[in-house]
Amino acid sequence: MTQQQTTGGDVRLTGISKTYGSFTAVHPLDLTVPQGSFFALLGASGCGKTTTLRMIAGLEEATTGTVSLGGRDITALPPHRRPVNTVFQSYALFPHLDVTENVAFGLRRRGVTPVKKRVAEMLDLVQLGDFARRRPHQLSGGQQQRVAVARALINHPQVLLLDEPLGALDLSLRRRMQLELKRIQTEVGITFVHVTHDQEEAMTMADTVAVMNGGRVEQLGAPAELYENPRTTFVANFLGTSNLIEAEIVSAGTDVVVSVGGGTLRLPAGRCPAPAPPGGRLLVGVRPEKISLDPAADADPGDGRNRVTGRITEAGFLGVSTQYLVESPAGKALQVYEQNTGHRRSLAPGSEVVLHWDPAHTFALDAAQDME
Ligand code: ATP
């Protein structure tokens, strides 16, 4: 199984929902997971991501809607008849069996042969060939996790579901395993649906991320697209840090011009919620690392960049970068992350500064929007 799989098809959820009594854990949801993609369901605890995953697995019965795989409706199939497999955070390895037998378990149960060759291939895939005879308690957390992945993949599922599989690992191992899982997914080409509350994890691994909040998908897209162009305040704040500035629309054309405390800003019309009538209110956003800081100067260099003035209130040296908090007529505590290059400079608290950034790095949200 070290070559790409081509079986399966898209996973399609149509109007799928889950209620427990009067509580709706997942509101009717339409979602397509393209075949062969690494798809992440991302959100805070309780947002409904595990319930959604369990409905794909068949471990939870959907209240409404259907689940299909490659055009085939699998809603009524019990979990073991679905061509999917799940890896849980707890690994659920058999403690009395060694690595080989843990991985071989699914094959033996179904009477599939040859066992030895397939297990060896799987152990190669997860780079555990040297650990074949160890029991789970003789392995590190990351190694146990890889055994669980090998065991779940050996039956060639069309879809692998991963429920916070790295949750029990410490940060550095977690980072390594993120890259490792991504490598395995690319190698086998199977669709992975990965549940996590960790935005960095979702962004590192997934081709597509669905950001969930309160039982709904708020936004779905490629990681960079979600980061660069969030459509809701929840997404803007959940994926990294955002400066959100209250603004009023002055004019709208190819660029939209807005007024903020202390001046005007410009942004591409495509990054504004439509419609954008003059007088309308927006929240204008810019990521802290997109902003440059300069000591205050009188002249506007006319370079077309967005500019606001401010005064540094806090400066924190973080090694690779320096983090500033800036008080400005545009916003109380604007955050700026400046990369530390060879020439360290000190912009001390109290310094008057100009904040400037490329209008293309500006996004806007409907000030009135708020998901239920
Ligand atoms: P976490 O990251 O904490 O696992 P999650 O986003 O995966 O959270 P779910 O496990 O899908 O969230 O749960 C969604 C909501 O449904 C939660 O509010 C949870 O309390 C509720 N819920 C889940 N299972 C049940 C159940 N069997 N009965 C009642 N409510 C439930």
Give a nutshell description of this structure.
The protein is of the alpha+beta class and 372 residues long. Helix content is 22%, strand content 36%.
Q: Could you describe the 3D structure shown?
A:
- The protein is α+β, with helices and mostly antiparallel strands.
- It folds into two domains: 11-234, 3-Layer(aba) Sandwich (Rossmann fold), CATH 3.40.50.300; 241-366, RNA polymerase II/Efflux pump adaptor protein, barrel-sandwich hybrid domain (OB fold (Dihydrolipoamide Acetyltransferase, E2P), Beta Barrel).
- It is built from eight helices and 20 strands.
- The strands form four sheets. It has a six-stranded mixed beta sheet with strand order 6-7-8-3-9-10, with helices on both faces.
- Strand 9 and strand 10 (216-221) form a beta hairpin.
- Helix 3 packs across helix 4.
- The chain starts with 10 loop residues before the first strand and ends in a 6-residue tail after the last strand.
- Mean pLDDT is 90; it is low at 1-6.
- The protein binds adenosine-5'-triphosphate (ATP).
- GO terms for molecular function: ATP binding.
- Part of the ABC transporter complex PotABCD involved in spermidine/putrescine import. Responsible for energy coupling to the transport system.
- Keywords: ATP-binding, Cell membrane, Membrane, Nucleotide-binding, Translocase, Transport.
- Residues 11-239 form the ABC transporter domain.
- Belongs to the ABC transporter superfamily. Spermidine/putrescine importer (TC 3.A.1.11.1) family.
